[in-house]
Amino acid sequence: MSARTLINVPAKAKRGEVIEIKTLIAHPMETGYRVGLNGALIPRDIITTFVCTYNGEEIFRADFARAIAANPYLTFSTVATERGTIAFQWTGDNGFSASAEAPITVE
Amino acid sequence: MSDHRPESRATRRDFIAGSASLAGGLALASAIVVRPSRATPESMAAAIKEVVGEAPVRKGKVKIDVPPLVENGNAVPLTISVESPMTAADHVKSIHLFNQKNPQPNVIDVHLGPRAGRAQFSTRIKLAAAQTIVAVAALSDGSFWSGDADVIVTIAACVEDLQ
Questions:
Q1: Which residues in chain B are closer than 8 Å to A57, comparing Cβ atoms?
Q2: Looking at the partner chain, which of A18, A76, A81 has a beta carbon nearest the beta carbon of B121?
Q3: Taking a C-beta distance cutoff of 8 angstroms, is the pair B133, B107 a contact?
């Protein structure tokens, strides 16, 4: 299962600069508390974990609870250290898994 | 004839009262099924305790940037920032966000380190009612700091129409 993702990472940065990373992923984030038209609870279906790695090293991790809005949006920052790849991984209920990556050039 | 009347009226009254209480019971039962119990300030305190343990939580350093009045509780934008130099010796290890009145007290737990450069993140959350949200930051020296914000929600999450 893959979902649409939207990533915003600056293509170029100076060494040591703090850069802002924006991520968005399409996901309903069903809380498990809502009732469907048949009167039964709609089962929980959320993303539970988000991990960001910079050239393989984990730089940011978030654990989502049910209170995160649909289509989880997350903005955070990191220090540009070297040229390479910033990778993103989302995992969740029902075997949900999605990933994305963005290249970065550091001068 | 006149003897029977009060009796029949009484039974009808009984019947109506009985059916009303039955309906009330059904409504209560369905309310229990439909509406999960809300997190309370006590359950939020318990959730915070799970993160910090017995360590004291001091007020300050943590700032929640959220609009004081939001129309739609389904997506409330917020930014949490913590005052910290974010060096290897002195940085924020994690930031935890809690609420009082959603069905459960946890919102998000964020783990970061000196490589973040800034102890700050933004996201969008669901809020079921006007309430106070609390953020707790764990610092590398083992101390905990908290900040809170009051949010008024006009349309709560969880009540939108289902298609």
A1: 115
A2: A76
A3: yes
CATH number, span B41-155: 2.60.40.2470
Distance CA A82, CA A79 (A): 9
C-beta atoms of B116 and A76 within 8 A:
yes
Which helix (H) or strand (E) segment is B46 a member of? helix B41-52
State ipTM.
0.91
Residue holding tokens 């910290």? B84
| Positive or negative torsion for Cα B30, B35, B41, B42 | positive
Domains in chain A (CATH in brackets) are 5-106 (2.60.40.10)
CA distances from A2 to A70, A95, B35, B144 (A): 16, 11, 32, 38
Main-chain dihedrals φ then ψ at residue A24, nearest 5 degrees: -145, 140
**Span A28-52, pLDDT tens digits:** 999 988 888 888 889 999 999 999 9
Distance from B107 to chain A by nearest Cα, in Å?
Answer: 5
B:18-77 residues touching chain A, CB 8 A cutoff: 33-34, 36, 74-76
Q: What is the pLDDT of residue A38?
A: 87
Cβ atoms of residues A93 and A106 within 8 Å = no
Q: Mean pLDDT across the stretch A69-95?
A: 95
- What's the pTM value of the predicted model, to 2 decimals? 0.81
Buried b (16+ CB within 10 A) or exposed e, B87-105: eeeebbbbbbbbbbbbbbb
Longest dimension (CA), chain A: 58
